[in-house]
Task: structure prediction
Amino acid sequence: MHQMELVRLATTGSVDDGKSTLIGRILYDTKQVFQDQLEAIEDASRRRGSDYVDLALLTDGLRAEREQGITIDVAYRYFATPKRKFILADTPGHVQYTRNMVTGASTADIALVLVDARKGVLEQTKRHAFISSLLRVPHLVLCVNKMDLVDYSQKVYDEIMDEFRSFAARLDIADLRFVPVSALEGDNVVEGSEAMPWYHGSTLLETMETIHVASDRNLIDARFPVQYIIRPHTMEHQDYRGYAGRIASGVLRPGDEVMILPSGFSSTIASIDTFEGSVDEAPAGLSVSITLEDDIDVSRGDMICRPNNRPQVGQDIDAIVTWMSETVRLRPGAKYGIKHTTRSARALIRDLQYRFDIETLHRVDDATDLGLNEIGRVTMRTTAPLFFDEYRKNRETGSFILIDEGTNRTVGAGIIGGLAL
Result:
């Protein structure tokens, strides 16, 4: 189990398209539901007057969600099959919770975009597909759900597939796939469907298990943002000085020559330590403590990289921002705190270049501000240099959040560079 590949999923789409039910079906049909959990949702389904077991209750955990039958927060579920381990984020469908969807999809390897076969492609479907593309989710699977309510019609499925393909052609989606399913009945979710003999593709679970995700990760550009300096005050480890953090991208090994930014000093990696012990190789995603051959002043927020493969260093940033605040709007001239990898600074919004019209994918060039869930391109200047790559090249070092310094709340999420629409 420890050696199995981990894949992160996010379910997206409009409200009532069946995202939570689909996840419940996957968990139930892959035998991930304990008997006491099943009895609890059976009892809850009866009390709600349902004549079937509402598998959506497996993921809709908040009281408000259960009462309204919708997803508000991002619900995470963990499960495994004989082939892979999965972390699945069930994101909300309502427009006002788009910011939650951004959170759930930001780390996903695969986005499952659901469409109600009766309603077809809606504005929120397009919004979530656009955001998934913006966040560079490598694989997008359009799940045409509730096929049982349209008599498993191939004509309906083909029309939805053609409409979505036409829209997605304007997006930057590397891998797009389609699966017709019925989450309620279980058709084409884990097992194949006898009701749709015209469909000859993989089930949704087979698609999730076989999509190749290993090559999506950046294993070329070594980036190690320093999060903490480890100096044990014990006689046994009095000479130990480690630099702890999570490897953002690339692979590091003892003996590698590295450079520390912003100082520009170079050294060689002496050891790479983990909780289980020292390792000979540390890939992206692993949390480690690195020691260097030379005694160099390294602080939180510094970046360890290779001398001949460095990130960009600068204070003038061009980025696409998704606004997340209900109370304040993003306007040119405003100042915010910025958190980029492990580095903190302040940022001044110098200009709002344009806002995206999600429905048409056109630019609104005369936009003067951004409100809740709106997306636009901005230029800003930070009080300290950032060590960054374009988001399309490195999702870890190409993203940041903006913070309201008065309330300490996250008010915006940004990606550096972005789509050239």
In short: Residues 148 and 182 are 6 Å apart (CA to CA). The chain has seven helices and 23 strands.
